[in-house]
Amino acid sequence: MNKEEIRQRLKDVQSLPTLPPIVSKLNQMVSDEDVTAVKLGRIIEKDQVLTSKLLKMVNSSFFGFPQRISTVSNAIVLLGFNVIKTLIVTSSIFEVMQSSDIGLFEHSLGCATAAGIVAKKLGIKNPEEVSTAGLIHDLGKIVLRAELPEEYEQVVETAREQDRYMREVEKEALGIGHGEIGGILARQWNLPERLVYPIEYHHNPEASPDYKEISAIIHFSDILIRALGFGFGGDKWVPPLDHNAWNRIKFGKKDMTHILEEVDEKLAELQDFTLDIHKDEGTES
Amino acid sequence: MQRIPIKLAKPGMILAKEAITPEGQVLCGAGTELSQEVIARLIKQEVLTVTVEGHPVQLPGEKGLTEKLKELDHRFVKVKNDPVLRALKTLIAEFWVVQEKGEDFLQKLKKTKTR
Quick check: is B107 in a domain? Predict the structure, then answer.
């Protein structure tokens, strides 16, 4: 399979049931300037399953809100519509991932947590958006796994056998890396560029046409979360650091220690969250 | 200190951090000794985990410090020549040592290494 064939396959992903019809409705509404968070919230809240999933996500520890968010319109006000939309678009994907690849799910949640903490430390506006970019940075892997399971398995296996980075093997075997795949899809779903670029360029953030700082944060958060050994991102190796990206955000020993403390604390809470999910699965079945 | 699921909390354990509900409400402060009644109340208030002093419970799948440090080294094998990442690795290792054995232990460890 070559790059073009893969692109073709990805085009079809849009029509899969993974994208709830509510998203296009919301997109239309958002382009209407008179729309309010309350109105949007009301539309979303009509779908009870989606609402409960959404509230579970926004209340999980990686956004780090001290108070519980209990309505969708509140969530929209607090997190911004970009974040809510992204969570809706990706909610069904994450559902699949929770049951099929808990390691990648934990890696994604961990990266979201670290990215939010780093973004706050840097004083970036709307750190929740950066968290969300962290949450879906490996979208490409998730989609590869779901759409081309045999190829994905082969890539993971080869990476493991030859002790290599997964993305090296991806490029060799498929002609395209998971970053690029994630970018294609995120764009197809009309996610904002602030989210598309960090997904697409999380391994080479300096190549990003824009939002280089957010891309650098995701790049480093991915490294940090792998360094800590939380979750499993497809291979066990800490990826190389882009030093130009690092220079955009770099921290001294003291700040870095604070970040580690905070990340460690939140990761422990995240384990509660994922335990909770396991528990839910247990009671449903 | 150790973070444990509330199910594994036993009377006599001492809280190393305050116990907080999912809503963020503090129920009891650090230093509180757990009793059957306190544990029951925490469960009722939907507290999922507590952080207690010492390391009283061996959790399933939990790794010892030595093993954690060995795996940490291994994950960094491909980037071992990067000075920034080497510093990050050292920082994580020290963080874990302090977390499990305390600051004094780390200082002693550093002294024996430089000697």
Answer: yes
Tokens for A249?
A: 């955000």
Q: Is the pLDDT of residue A155 over 90?
A: yes
User: Look-up: residue for tokens 């839910």?
Assistant: A280
Q: Retrieve residue A267's tokens.
A: 């990761």
Residues of the domain holding B43: 2-52
Mean pLDDT of A194-217: 96
Residue predicted with more confidence, B92 or A63: B92
Neighboring chain B residues of A240 at a CB cutoff of 8 Å: 78-79, 82, 85
CA B41 to chain centre: 24
Lowest mean pLDDT among A136-140, A226-230, A247-251, A269-273: A269-273
CATH number of B14's domain: 3.90.105.10
Of A218 and A81, more confident: A218
**Superfamily of domain covering A3-278:** Hypothetical protein af1432 (1.10.3210.10)
Instruction: Say how far apart CA B111 and CA B115 lie, in whole Å.
Output: 6
Cβ separation of A243 and B84 shorter than 8 Å? yes
Q: What is the pLDDT of residue B9?
A: 93
Domain assignment of residue B58, yes or no: no
Chain B positions touching A227 (Cβ under 8 A) are 72, 75-76, 85, 88-89, 92
Q: Check CB contact of A239 with chain B, cutoff 8 Å.
A: yes
Q: What is the arithmetic mean of pLDDT over B46-53?
A: 87
Considering the domain architecture, whether residues B45 and B82 belong to the same structural domain is answered as no
CB under 8 A, 24+ apart: contacts of B67-70: B68/A229, B68/B96, B69/B93, B69/B96, B69/B97
Task: Spell out the domain ranges in chain A.
Answer: 3-278
Yes or no, beta carbons of A238 and B78 under 8 Å apart:
yes
Contact A241 B84 (CB under 8 A): yes
Closest among B97, A263, B115 to B106, alpha carbons compared: B97
Query: Can you tell me the mean pLDDT for A141-145?
Result: 86
Q: How close A280 gets to chain B, by Cα (Å)?
A: 14
Contact B68 A229 (CB under 8 A): yes
Say what the ipTM of the complex is: 0.83
